[in-house]
């Protein structure tokens, strides 16, 4: 993976959120923090597991001390590290353990996104995998109290994954790529 500039990484991430995640309604809770500019975009150029771990801890601390009205959620965007999906999953396990070790289990949740994301037991080319595919490897830090509040006001949130799978499979890989490649 060729490292890119921080501003460009943020621009690509914002475009992906706007056109794909919010545009297709994959996450019905993403539009408000996006519109209100309450998402912290943290670009990590580290390539080592240790450097990524340190960047994650800094992002975690920043989110915890921030006013939720200013910073509701954070995306740690890796521009040079963890291009291999299996290595990414290993790092995800380590970062989730760090959240637990910090006593923040139930306070912060880590969601995972990667350009090569693949759900277990799905073919590599299954369009459903795109629900967690992103321009760069990313770790999404989510305040669980904010998520819980959003879930309370959403009818049948348990249907979101199945709805997303149907929508993405209807679009197909070519349709998804066309949407993502639009200028």
The secondary structure category is: alpha+beta
Largest sheet: 4 strands, mixed
Number of DSSP helical runs: 6
Q: What's the gyration radius in Å?
A: 16 Å
Mean pLDDT reading: 93
How far do the termini sit from each other? 22 Å
**Unreliable stretches covering 5 or more consecutive residues:** none
Shape: globular
What does this structure look like?
The protein is of the alpha+beta class and 183 residues long. The protein has one domain. The protein is built from six helices and four strands. The chain has helices spanning 6-22, 31-35, 49-65, 85-101, 144-152, 160-181; strands spanning 39-44, 73-78, 108-113, 138-143. Strands 1-2-4-3 form a four-stranded mixed beta sheet, sandwiched between helices. α3 crosses α4. It starts with 5 loop residues before the first helix and ends with a helix. The relative contact order is 0.16. The model has no long low-confidence stretch (mean pLDDT 93).
């Amino acid at each position: 993976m060729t490292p890119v500039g921080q501003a460009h990484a943020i621009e690509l991430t914002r475009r992906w959120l706007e056109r794909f995640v919010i545009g297709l309604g994959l996450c019905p809770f993403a539009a408000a923090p996006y519109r209100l500019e309450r998402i912290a975009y943290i670009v990590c150029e580290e390539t080592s597991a240790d450097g990524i771990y340190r960047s994650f801890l800094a992002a975690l601390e920043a989110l915890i001390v921030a006013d939720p009205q200013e910073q509701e959620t954070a995306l740690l965007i890796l521009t040079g590290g963890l291009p291999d999906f299996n290595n990414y999953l290993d790092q995800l396990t380590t970062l989730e353990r760090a959240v637990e070790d910090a006593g923040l289990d139930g306070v912060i949740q880590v969601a995972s996104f990667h350009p090569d994301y693949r759900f277990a037991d799905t073919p590599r080319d299954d369009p459903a995998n795109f629900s967690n595919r992103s321009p760069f490897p990313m770790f999404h830090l989510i305040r669980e109290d904010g998520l819980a509040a959003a879930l309370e006001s959403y009818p049948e949130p348990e249907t979101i994954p199945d709805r997303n799978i149907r929508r993405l499979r209807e679009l197909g890989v070519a349709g998804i790529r066309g949407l993502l490649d639009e200028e």
